[in-house]
Amino acid sequence: MSYFGAFAELGLVRRPPPGERKVLLMHGTTVPRAQSIIRQGGMAPGRAFFAMGMSNRDLARIFARRAGARGPRAGDPALLLTTVPEADFERMRRLGLARAVPFDAADRPELRLRRQWIVEPGGIELLNRAAEDWRMVRMRR
To answer: Which of 19, 23, 65, 132 is most buried, taking the most CB atoms under 10 A from its CB?
Structure first.
């Protein structure tokens, strides 16, 4: 079974109907922040960073551990997952509201030659409207 299929079986992402293509976005954060986003039904306007697709889940985990390491009050790391219709994500990309950006050469070696998705404030509005739902996966420190 694929990782996407495993997450779908656990109810963490919705499996799209036949013919409907989806994009899986993962945001590394902390448990309290993820819970707040879920309660609010979306992210607050502002720039946000995502890893796209299960093949990049290690990036989201790195971001989550960074967020959790900001101090004892930050909370445990967590992954925030959502799926959006591919057409909506492509629209955000065409409008310049979502873009893939390479990591800096000075960053951690495992991040070099990889990309993260940056979604600008206007893109967050579109993302919140298009998001199927928001799910959280707790991580160990």
So the answer is: 23
Q: How far apart are alpha carbons 116 and 49 in whole angstroms?
A: 7
Q: Are 22 and 85 in contact (CB under 8 A)?
A: yes
Q: Report whether 24 contacts 79 (CB < 8 A).
A: no
Instruction: Summarize pLDDT for 24-83 with one digit per residue, the tens.
Output: 999 999 999 999 999 999 999 999 999 999 999 999 999 999 998 887 788 899 999 999
DSSP assignment string, 54-75: GGGHHHHHHHHHHHHTT-TTT-
**CA 59 – CA 77 distance, rounded (Å):** 13
